[in-house]
Write a structure and sequence with these properties.
Two copies of one chain form a homodimer.
Chain A: E1 11-17, E2 19-20, E3 26-31, E4 34-38, E5 54-57, H1 60-63, E6 69-73, H2 79-82, H3 85-88, E7 96-98, H4 100-112, E8 121-123, E9 129-132, E10 135-142, E11 149-156, E12 159-163, H5 181-190, E13 192-198, H6 212-224, E14 229-232, H7 238-250, E15 254-258, H8 260-271, E16 282-283, E17 296-300, H9 310-315, E18 329-332, H10 341-353, E19 357-360, H11 374-384, E20 386-392, E21 394-395, H12 396-408, E22 423-428, E23 431-437, E24 442-446, E25 449-450, H13 455-467, E26 469-476, E27 483-492, H14 501-517, H15 526-545, E28 550-557
Helix pairs in contact in A: 4-8, 5-11, 6-7, 14-15
């Protein structure tokens, strides 16, 4: 059923991703005939999503309403806010608004997908206003762990809503660009219908530390290192890179950039003027062996112990040009992302085996978060003074906690709306509530396949991963019903075949015994025979080995 | 080659597990003809060990020397110190020494494996001394997150070595049983050849908090809860259970025990007098509905979000008797074990969806560690004043860090011996060094199979988990070389077959094209044909889908 613009008056918010999960941030605001989209992020796969590369939001809802979409507004250039664009732009292609660095990163990403020539990227600056149908949108500077981040104020006849994107306050940001509290205040004074705010750090008390403290830590650590200094950080964290470069300069070290995305992002940020690196401080791999160790600083990706990163290869002494030595120092200047603790721990152990010392966020101030903690959120709520509050960007418990915080600073419980993905909130008159659920969800990208791997395939992969697979082949004469081949058994991931010939012979015998009970006359339904073969093998494997492999009986009629 | 007792004089330490890893703790001390084993622990599988249930140490070294083994000495009853016993006791069966609770837990475990009648369990008390060939062993009381833990002093003609097991200091333990610093001091004054000490918490500064603080936290939280209180903890943490019971009593709540191991361990601890629970405070599931919510406290397992635990079923509203309600409080009174953060996070989100409030170690003092932090370790080193130091119980970086700490408190670097699994340290005269490597390692237990799943099988499981499996069946007349069946393609975990019939038909065509190029005359080597079929399919799948399934071509000659 096609929706018409007259079916409802008021402002609608449609949660397409990021409400009840970390990542996959995407939302739509609708008024009258106009839809604007805020962000278009991906999510990295959770452990149960075996073999999946990335996860993107299901935008079926938007595709059906493509003609009404006026723009995609990007708050900042992190993957969980822009990463789904290459996939989503195949189906919808509205103009994309964002600041220079955000769109610089977007463009680079679209090049990989050969989409950069086909999109309409429109650069804005903080405090710029754009008119998009019934919406007037103002971009509001916020500090975050990437430069050039913005919150959004969307004004429409129903009122003004503010969406924070990801933010923190940071009173001493590296580039001096403060979160624009004056603009938030201005809207707050005029009256804000609803606030949609970042819930990522809602479990942290107090204030998030300033990025500048990380620079101070570097400037303390670098001169004390006798050997080389290797700093691992996210390549999008341009301020972090800037601070490494400054500390390197001050301690007389040259800088080697390592990792494809580090080199790429630094180049974009330098070209756009966000990063100041004198040319003569940069060196390349060829120059590395010529420099004394105490004059070297490397900035690299791979801080999460990613299996193919060059940092893990360096740590495992498996890198051609870079060998670690006793006295070298590795600084993991990033968060231990939940789920990655084990690979990071392995990375650290390997680094110590090479004789290096490792410094990380748990022992020194070499990383700070980019998200606001409780006191910062309270301040924002008090400035914006929204009529309604909708927590976004968080798992379910984060949304609950953020809603509790909003109540503490004065938004009554009934005006805190706990929505999850798929929920549609209608703001009309003085009321707001969840009025509808639309179909959303997680679309799995596996190689070139987008959405073709679903729960059945994942369940099979899980099953295969636990006890492997056993294939049973039986060739049957289709007229006489005689067995003319097999039974033969082949397995993978079940038992080590070289050592298990006898065991598999026993399994064949059990299959033969089963087949012997099936007279040719009753052999009309081969599916029944397959099921029976699977049953007896399942029983055998369970009894003898307590294993439950995927059993695939193939009865070939010839 | 059989070793004889004359090949070396001096005391040998053989690291069989736990040096360079967390868990799998097992070591052997040898003097002359006598071997004593310290602990016999398991390890829970790491993420790459797909389908593996538990990991045990390879004891090939001990099996070859079984006649010289005088005893297994157990420091305490945690799985990473006793869990491998049921497997190891199949091959060696010396007397097992431990305190009453430790052996109580061991006995329960052996019952499951029907081994409890076949072993010689010998209960000791702290400060007891036993003579084992050339070794005199004294058990030394230590505080830990399980009651009745001990360190060991092993005296032999070469000198005295002290092995701490797992310990912390805790000046106010729940049962009043302090770590026996007097005995450590006595040995320190007489002279200690070597100290082997727990490195688990070496990355933590200061002192580990007392277990008693957790009880204080419970007594503050319980009366403030309007609904039911559910405390999730490890069932072996008897003091924790005791403190929950006390807080429940004081706040007028009855106690329901939940989870098989919780019920079992509580029973053992009560029978042995380690746990005081008045009978009238315990209730069972049937009584639950009759009690007002504010009079209920439940103690349960499942704090790590284990997939089959009843706590996760309660959280997912999938438990028959126990329904959570708004106002209930769940206390996760245990560590977030590295690697489990994601399942714990999911558990918390589900609990919030049910309307419960969740309290955990990151927001309140509802858990403390059982391992000594840096200042406690320094104190121990200063009391024991060993000539040599060997860090144990830790990943590689923990061993390095502990060695650095030992140097700070006076053991010179050359007398800190950084050994890993398999290393043999010889203490002879005034010298000590690593003299040998023996074969050790991790043996995987998968169902009833012990050691039959190795790296080949795990690699297959990993491969299967990522992109599934494709089986290609081709039947060939073995005399004419004609194709008499297929090619047929069956897959699991690769693509969703219901939606992919066309795609799989295309793959069949590619196989047919390949086979067409093979004339019957050259069809002498079917292995070559199989390889070629695998090659073309691999290319096709990679090009069209960027997926790399396990491809299993079956050429059936009939």
């Amino acid at each position: 059923m096609e929706e018409t613009s007259t079916e409802s008056t008021g402002l609608k918010f449609v949660a397409l991703g990021g409400l009840g999960e970390i990542g996959l941030n995407m939302a739509a605001f609708e008024y009258g005939d106009d839809i604007v989209i805020v962000d278009c992020g991906l999510m990295f796969p959770e452990p149960y999503m075996l073999g999946i590369d990335v996860v993107i939001p299901d935008i079926g809802y938007l595709i059906e309403r493509a003609d009404r979409i006026r723009a995609i507004l990007l708050t900042h250039g992190h993957e969980d806010h822009i990463g789904a664009l290459p996939y989503v732009l195949r189906d919808i292609n509205p103009p994309i608004y964002g600041t220079a660095l955000t769109l610089g990163f977007v463009k680079e990403k679209l090049k990989e997908f050969e989409l950069d020539q086909k999109v309409d990227l429109r650069v804005v600056k903080p405090r710029d206003t754009v008119q998009l149908g019934s919406f007037e949108v103002e971009f509001i500077r916020v500090a975050h762990s990437i430069v050039d981040g913005c919150a959004l104020a969307l004004s429409c006849p129903e009122g003004v809503v503010i969406h924070t994107g990801d933010f923190k306050l940071d009173q001493t940001p590296v580039d001096g660009e403060l979160t624009d509290l004056a603009t938030f205040s201005r809207y707050g004074e005029k009256g804000v219908l609803a606030l949609f705010a970042d819930s990522t750090n809602i479990e942290r008390e107090g204030y998030t530390l300033s990025e500048r403290l990380v620079g101070d830590a570097f400037e303390e650590i670098f001169p004390a290192c006798a050997g080389r200094v290797i700093v691992a950080a996210f390549s999008s964290n341009i301020h972090r890179v800037q601070q490494v470069v400054r500390a390197a300069e001050k301690s007389g070290r040259k800088v080697l950039l390592n990792g494809r995305s580090m080199i790429g992002n630094v180049q974009i940020a330098r070209e756009l003027g966000y990063l100041k690196i004198p040319d003569d401080i940069l060196i390349d791999l060829k120059e590395l062996p010529r420099l004394p160790k105490e004059q070297v600083c490397m900035i690299t990706t791979g801080s999460q112990g990613e299996p193919r990163s060059s940092l893990i290869r360096i740590a495992m002494d498996d890198h051609k040009q870079i060998k670690l030595e006793r006295g070298d120092t590795v600084i993991l200047s990033s968060r231990f992302i939940p789920g990655n603790e084990k690979t990071i721990s392995d990375l650290m152990n390997h680094l110590y085996r090479r004789g290096a010392e490792v410094i990380h966020e748990k022992v020194s101030e070499v990383h700070v978060s980019g998200h606001a903690s409780q006191e910062e959120l309270k301040l924002l709520h008090n400035l914006v003074k929204p009529r309604f509050f909708v927590p976004v960007h968080g798992e379910y418990r984060h949304l609950v906690k953020h809603s509790q915080l909003a109540q503490k600073v004065g938004t009554p419980e009934e005006r805190c709306i706990l929505a999850v993905n798929g929920d549609v909130i209608l703001f009309a008159g003085d009321e707001a509530c969840i009025v509808d659920q639309v179909s959303t969800g997680r679309v799995f990208v596996d190689g070139k396949g987008v959405g073709d791997v679903g729960n059945v395939v994942l369940k099979d992969r899980k099953h295969l991963s636990e006890d492997g697979m056993v294939v049973v082949i039986i060739g049957i004469n289709q007229t006489t019903g005689e067995i003319i081949y097999g039974p033969d058994i082949v397995s993978r991931g079940f038992v080590f075949e070289d050592d298990s010939q006898e065991y598999l012979e026993e399994a064949k015998k059990v299959v033969l015994d089963t087949l012997a009970l099936v007279t040719p006359e009753v052999m009309t339904d081969w599916n029944e025979v397959k099921l029976e073969v699977r049953r007896v093998l399942r029983r055998l494997f369970n009894k003898t080995l307590e294993r439950r492999p995927v059993i695939l009986p193939l009865v070939l009629e010839m």
